[in-house]
Amino acid sequence: MLVPMTIVFIFCIFCALGHNVYSNSEQNRALPNSRSVFVCKRPAVPWLRDLPPRPRIINPARVCDGKVDCPLGDDETCTTCGDPPHVPSSFRTDSQTFFPTGAVVTYSCHSGFVLGEVESVICDRSGSWSKAPSCKKQCDPIPQLVNGLMDTYIETLVTGAVVTFSCVPGFAPLRNNFLRCDSSGSWFGTPVCQPVCPVSNLPTVANAQRQAVTDPLTVGMVVTYTCNSGYSPAAGTNSIFTCDRNGQWTGNAACLPFCLVSNLPTVVNAQRQTLTDPLTAGSSAIYSCKDGFAPAPGTSTTFTCDANGQWTGTAACLPICPVSNLPPVVHAQHPTVTDPLTVGTVITYICEDGYIPTPGINMSFTCDSFGQWSGIATCLPVCSVASVPVVTNAKHSVVIAPLAVGTLVTYICDTGYSPATESKMSYTCDEMRQWNGSASCLPRCTNPVNTSDGRSWRLCDGDGPGFSNPKKGRIEVQVDGVWGTVCDDGVTNWRNRNLDIACKTFGYSGSNGLNRRAAFFGQGVGPIHMDDVSCTGTEAFLTQCPYTRISNCNHCADQGVECL
Questions:
Q1: Which residues are in the Sushi domain (predicted)?
Q2: What would the pLDDT profile of 342-357 be if each residue is shown by its tens digit?
Q3: Alpha-carbon distance 562 to 461, whole Å?
Q4: Which of 115, 373, 407, 563 is an S-S bond match for 429, by CB 3.0 to 4.6 Å?
Q5: 3-class DSSP state of 502
Q6: How far is 154 from 152, CA to CA, in rounded Å?
Q7: What is the pTM (predicted TM-score) of this model?
Q8: Residue 216, phi then psi, degrees to nearest 5
Q9: In terms of DSSP bridges, do strands 482-486 and 528-530 run parallel, antiparallel, or are they unpaired?
Q10: pLDDT value of residue 14
Q11: Which residue segments constitute the domains of the chain, with CATH numbers given?
């Protein structure tokens, strides 16, 4: 047994001295605990250092795990990588702490972030990690573009992504139509699709040319028109059309003919401002009247160039009538007026209270073509209606204000009354606003006398027709509210007894004995209440005397009496 053991020992020494490197199989798989290349090293024996080392194959089951796995108790020496690279916004999915060749480390991104094309790193043979993955910020939802569509749909977009848009028909991009996702995940950019205004929809402007433009024309774009020779832009127009936000052309443009200064009319007694051609539609030419003249009422002293290249307007300068030359009118005033007052101006005067215009006078003055005031105005005093005299037992004619000088008011006596002999029965308004005249109405009959039998008695027309006398007159009696007469047709032949009783009826002692028969005091009216009166002389009043009510008498036989 000694010999074999000696042989083995010598062999091992030889191996140990002559072969100082040995390794396992070269497997390099990117899996946890994969078998990796490693070597076992020992210091070379000095006297064998010139011998080339030879690797010795170790059991492939051996792994490079930092443990003592080499023969003769040697420690292994592995090719390893340091800590895996740091990937922002991510975390590792393993808990490894030892990273030999072939080790794999996998990453996942935090919420809101997305991995790029690589999700893990591998430790290579040189002890270096492969290119690290990256976690990019996930972009916010893509904002909707009004009247636009996204060109390409991508489900998940991360920082740096660019999205382009196209506008729907009838709309065009205002500027670069894209969005870029920045590092915060927000979209940067302002794509806008705005309406298109077709060139074909541009209006035609008479007597004008349009600048050359081509589609598309979008909101805010302006197209300018230029008037042809001999024409100019109408007043209030700007000769442009603008594409509005509704895709419509808005604006105003019109070209109108020129008006020539030489065609301006001449205005008598006026001078015109200095003007030079050309004058466009809407231009004005202003005239000013010379001294002593003023614009005629209803004129503007301005001519305007119209749309047909013609001057339109009215201007006239008329002589001035100074306000200070208006004639004064006694008891009248004119309204407040100020200069200038031109030909044809009419100033109407108004009479003061208590005065009226003279009949047939128009109370006005007119400024004539010579600058003079012509006309007439006079005022007459008036008498007030309230001042018309009141006449007892009479009525005056209808009066209506104003009552001018010379107005005549007439009177009519009431029934039972007559005008006095000296009465004019009228009053006239004089220049002093006083009433001149006379009117007096006297009763035709005396005041009634009542007797105990309920009768009333009166004497009428004793001093002549319409004038009463208290002691004489036609005898009248009231029966049942109706006045009538007493008749004597000669049957009884009134004598002293009848006459005396008649006078006693009126309160007198007797008569003068004169028989005033046959309507001596005039004929009465109404019924004949008493006929054939025959008194005895003892009665107190006539109706106590015998008489008849049914009469064959008439008013030509009305009885009268004269009392003492």
A1: 79-137, 195-261, 319-385
A2: 888 999 999 998 888 9
A3: 12
A4: 407
A5: helix
A6: 6
A7: 0.35
A8: -90, 145
A9: parallel
A10: 40
A11: 2-78 (no CATH), 90-137 (2.10.70.10), 148-195 (2.10.70.10), 199-257 (2.10.70.10), 261-318 (2.10.70.10), 323-382 (2.10.70.10), 384-443 (2.10.70.10), 449-562 (3.10.250.10)
Task: Please give the structure tokens belonging to residue 193.
Answer: 């699709």
Print the SS3 string covering 94-159: CCCCCEECCCEEEEEECCCEEECCCCEEEECCCCCECCCCCEEEECCCCCCCCCEEECCCCCCCEC
Cβ distance 547 to 492 under 8 Å? no
The two structure tokens encoding residue 382: 């008036």
Between CA 335 and CA 363 the distance in angstroms is 12
Q: Which two tokens stand for residue 266?
A: 């001449």
Which is nearest to 528 in space by CA: 491, 492, 474? 474
Q: What is the CA radius of gyration of the chain?
A: 73
Which pLDDT band holds residue 235 (cuts at 50, 70, 90)?
confident
As a whole number of angstroms, the distance between CA 485 and CA 529 comes to 6
The letter for the amino acid at 456 is: S
Contact 115, 107 (CB under 8 A): yes
Q: Are the CB atoms for 52 and 59 separated by under 8 Å?
A: no
Tokens of 208: 């004008």
pLDDT tens-digit series, residues 479-502:
998 999 999 877 666 888 999 999
**Confidence check: pLDDT of 39 > 70:** no
